[in-house]
Amino acid sequence: MWVFTVTGFYSIIVDRHNPDHLLVRSRVAGDIEALWPSAKVEQTPTRDYNYTYRASIPRHIVMQAISSEIEDIDYDNYRHAIHDLRRLFDYTIIWQQLARMGQALT
Question: Checking DSSP bridges between strand 2-4 and strand 9-14, what pairing results, if any?
């Protein structure tokens, strides 16, 4: 699962070594800690898809953080809520690609 928030991008998969945990991966330093401050984040620059940072986190802790992000939504335009202009630029490119996908698959 890919999750985009106003402050981070995450790829979340099952931790194959511990099925009660999810492996939260990110390409940006600090993204994981933004939602899971107590997570033990490893830097793994040579791992799959260049997800440089990863942390094995109990499933219920991941769910709580994502749920909290949803509860805290107070904006009516997602892209306008992103204050980091570097992140906004990349998120906009992704938004454009998904718009093209929507047109192609309709």
Answer: antiparallel
Do residue 53 and residue 100 come from a single domain?
no
Count of structural domains, the chain: 2
pLDDT over 90 at 44, yes or no: no
Task: Note the pLDDT of residue 48.
Answer: 65
Note the helical H segments in the chain: 31-35, 59-71, 85-105
Same domain, residue pair 63 and 96: no
Residue 46 buriedness (CB in 10 A; 0-12 / 13-18 / 19+): exposed
**CA distance linking residue 52 with residue 67, whole number of Å:** 25
The boundaries of the domain holding residue 43 are 2-74
Using pLDDT thresholds of 50, 70 and 90, give the confidence band for residue 60.
Answer: very high
How many residues are present in the chain? 106
Instruction: Report the alpha-carbon distance of residue 95 to residue 59 in Å, rounded.
Output: 28
